[in-house]
Write the structure tokens for this entry.
Amino acid sequence: MDEGHADAIEKLRRDGASEAALAAFRRRLAGLDDPAAGLLPGAELEPIPSLPALDELPEPSPQEARAALDRVVVLKLNGGLGTSMGLTTPKSSIAIKDGRTFLDVIALQVLALRERHGVRLPLVLMDSTATRPPSLHALEQHPGLIRDDLAPDFLQGREPKLRADTGAPVQWPPDQELEWCPPGHGDLYISLAGSGMLAALLDAGYRWAFVSNADNLGALVDARIAAWVAAEQIPFLMEVVRGTPADRKGGHLARRDGRLVLRETAQVPDGDDSFGDVERWRWYNTNDLWVDLEALAELLAADPAGPRLPLIVNRKTVDPTDASSPEVLQLETAMGAAIGSIDGARALHVPRSRFVPVKTTDDLLVTRSDAYVLRDDGSLEAAFDGAAPPVVTLDPDYYKLLRDFDARFPDGPPSLRNARSLTVEGDVRFGRGVVVKGDATVRGPQSVRDGAMFDR
């Protein structure tokens, strides 16, 4: 190990990292020494022609559903700020539908499921130090949501950013917090254990965690899946959707040497153009996962560094707002990649209604529109015409930041339920009750009048 890497480990140790976090960081550092580690050439992979589907699973009896769901915890990844939309607050605090935020809707979903099935079903967040205080305050606004017998969150880990030129931990006196970064959501397994949350869940009798991103409101606990996972004793399950051209940059499933593997863009060798073929690689990761907590505890007891996850190296500047600041490496992993290292891991084909991520204001416009209906139980019901939601492409110069986006839709989003696509080029301000059908392109600068229709 070179001196720079040793310094990085020591810095992490002084920060109070658990032995498991240190072991996982050492593994990521070792991955830097082999540029080919984790790469998955398309020629070495086989497509997966078919998978079991959610619609094919048996409907459990009320007793079976209650027995399975009473041992499930809902775990939401909630560590991100809405920085890509110009915010300094948790992304989950964005108003998503009918004035409710992501966390408001998640709370509705959990409380409704508890009442329907008569189960405990706790909600636990994996927070960052920045998202923790406002997110816990938001949960407290929902009476009865936080359980007395279990903490409502635990903190994700952090690691030193490394100088790209030396591999040593970067030093940045103007803001020492910028010397640190999260290690990707693959940190979930280590942080669950290191925080004590894994042990607390097992002690309280919980067996399975349903894990998803806080920005995916389609990710609801489904009794059919819970009962199936319990009956089949599945240690790890990934929900996947049938790929469309819109998914071509997402992580897809394949088979390698008889095992399921998840391939992300960072794992594609230079010159390999096979990645975007959605007809060949049919199944795409939703990041909705079911994890057997007992199996995870056994895995961590045998290997404190956790599941073997391919290294993802992100190159950035230490200060993301200053392009002249030193270039750094951020070593990350993806939690879904555990499907390739856990024996018995499986995948399930689910309808696209379970995959409604909001990553950009493009996605936000679709979700806020009438293409989706928010029910009283928090479920987000698809109301669009067609198999896939409309594709929105907004000019980033005018719509990337949430304040600019909101200013251009002062009276709410246009109707998109009968749209296939909407492209907005330039500065366009939309009036009340605008309707889009089929495929439409709107060019600015202009103000679209109230009640205007785009039908092409």
Notes: The first strand starts at residue 72 and ends at 78. The chain has a mean pLDDT of 94. The chain is about 25% helix and 25% strand. The two ends are 61 Å apart (CA to CA).
